[in-house]
Amino acid sequence: MTTFRTIDNIAPDRRLLVRIDVNAAVEDGTVQDSRRFARHAETIQALLADDHAIALLAHQGRPGRDTFVSLEEHAEILTDHLDHRVEFVPDTDGNDALAAIDGLESGDVLLLENTRMCDGELPEEDPDTKAETDLVQTLAPEFDAYVGDAYSAAHRSHASIVGFPRVMDAYAGRVMETEYEANTALRDREFDGTVTMILGGTKAEDAIPIVEQLDDAVDRFCLGGVVGELFLRADDRDVGYDVGGPELFDHQWDEHQETLERVLEAYRDRLYLPTDLAFEDDRGERGETTLEGVSKERPFLDVGSKTAARYADLVAGSEAVFVKGALGVFEDERFARGTVEVLSAIAEADCFSVVGGGDTARAFALYDLDEADFTRVSIAGGAYVRALTGEPLVGVTVLEYDG
Ligand SMILES: Nc1ncnc2c1ncn2[C@@H]1O[C@H](COP(=O)(O)OP(=O)(O)OP(=O)(O)O)[C@@H](O)[C@H]1O
Ligand SMILES: O=C(O)[C@H](O)COP(=O)(O)O
Predict the structure, then answer these.
(1) How much distance in Å is there from the Cα of 99 to the middle of ligand 2?
(2) Residue positions in the annotated binding site for (2R)-3-phosphoglycerate?
(3) Which ranges of the sequence are coiled-coil (predicted)?
(4) Ligand 1 atom showing the smallest separation from residue 382 Cα
(5) 14, 75, 103, 312: which could join 111 in a potential S-S bond, CB 3.0 to 4.6 Å?
(6) What domains lie within the chain, and their CATH numbers?
(7) d(Cα 267, Cα 271) in Å, to the nearest integer?
(8) CA geometry: angle 301, 183, 323, nearest 5 deg
(9) Closest ligand to 157 CA?
(10) Distance from Cα 239 to the centre of ligand 1, integer Å
């Protein structure tokens, strides 16, 4: 059983370095608000009530992706949620950051620049190695304690997640505490009836292994999104458009081809693949095609209507449904049908239901879905599925306290 020291154990009026996860969607260059901001604002609010001086660390996107942007807009969104100024510092661990930190006073909140702009942050290495990075060595001496609140990034062994707890007092924030408890409890649930998992989104490394890992717990997997198309490719279908796009397919295919083919072969009778797909036609409207009409020459942006209806039926007959990732680019109304139809079917069904994924959770606000119709909606994606499989989260382990 994990024991954390939480922010309730910190004496008032300290200088705190707080790692949050406000990794967000970026549309037309604009950072989109999400439930992650609201949830972390609750942690910050609680820290402000204890007169702490706060510097926030967070990441956004990955180098090479168009979502890899500055955190300037994130500071504005957090300011709105908190109704308290969050000052953006366009530097993470250089002289400008140190000068801003030096001036921090009780009640101040700073947001330092994207941690993934620092050299030592990203490669996944063990916590002791990450503790040696310039980021950790430079910032740690400036603070009394570290607060780990980035539950949704706790599966990443990155410097800002695992390095600081090695060299300074570390505490779990409110998001870390509540998400950890709720998601870990899910693992121990047992169901008499059919358990269905909807697996979509863009992150193959998060989605593919869980088919094998949840072998005993899940009866059928309904696939969609980029993940579904990768499985279709493993089934010899000519899909997965990358030309000029954000490189979601070829790179992930090269990395995971063997696993995709093995999993498809071993679980074929329990994996439901899309039987039709949607695309943008010449008039800019939603077009659909069966698998006979697919080709790598065009992007497919949603599962087709027949697939959506079939998945909705499967959901309706389930005792429990777990969702990770969206079935299509739901942010565009033309390609929201798969995701929204399945989420609506879950809302209407009398089943135990959990929806995870930082991006996927946005569909609730966009399409007026009511969280109350679901058992739980997590702001975590990769960390949530790892909690389901029982795989330890390194960013949680480093906060554990035996005392
Ligand atoms: N066919 C597709 N092509 C491109 N993008 C897609 C497709 N289908 C779904 N998506 C995108 O997948 C995103 C959600 O997937 P992601 O893998 O980020 O999952 P998540 O579980 O919501 O998030 P996270 O793991 O980041 O918390 C959505 O923003 C959606 O636009
Ligand atoms: O959005 C997420 O799932 C987390 O912030 C982790 O981001 P990553 O998948 O880019 O490491």
Answers:
(1) 29
(2) 36, 116, 156
(3) none
(4) 25
(5) 75
(6) 7-177 (3.40.50.1260), 184-388 (3.40.50.1260)
(7) 6
(8) 20
(9) 2
(10) 17
328, 301 Cβ separation under 8 angstroms: yes
Question: What is d(CA 396, CA 399) in angstroms, rounded to the nearest whole number?
Answer: 5
What DSSP state is assigned to residue 393?
P
Angle at 392 between CA 267 and CA 25, to 5 degrees: 80
Protein residue closest via CA to atom 26 of ligand 1:
358
- Written as six digits, the tokens of 283 are 């008039």
Whole-structure pTM value: 0.89
Buried-exposed string 237-247: b where 16+ CB fall within 10 A, e elsewhere: bebbbeeeeee
CB of 23 shorter than 6 A to ligand 2: yes
For the chain, 403 residues long, give each residue's pLDDT as a single digit of tens: 568 899 999 999 999 999 999 999 999 999 999 999 999 999 999 999 999 999 999 999 999 888 999 999 999 999 999 999 999 999 999 999 999 999 999 999 999 999 999 999 999 999 999 999 999 999 999 999 999 999 999 999 999 999 999 999 999 999 999 999 888 888 888 899 999 999 999 999 888 989 999 998 999 999 999 999 999 999 999 998 886 666 789 899 999 999 999 999 999 999 999 999 999 999 999 999 999 999 888 899 999 999 999 999 999 999 999 999 999 999 999 999 999 999 999 999 999 999 998 888 889 989 999 999 999 999 999 999 999 888 999 999 999 876 5
Q: Are 298 and 279 in contact (CB under 8 A)?
A: yes
The DSSP element (H or E) to which 227 belongs, if any, is helix 225-234
Helices (H) and strands (E) in the chain, counts: 16, 17
Which residue has its alpha carbon closest to ligand 1 atom 20?
357
Closest CA to 193 of 349, 339, 372: 349
CB-CB contact of 67 with 30 (8 Å): no
Q: Which residue matches tokens 């999400």?
A: 34
Give the DSSP H or E segment for 340: helix 337-348
> Which ligand lies nearest to the CA atom of residue 331 in the structure?
1
Secondary structure class of 170 (helix, strand, coil)? strand
State which ligand 2 atom lies nearest to the alpha carbon of 61. 10
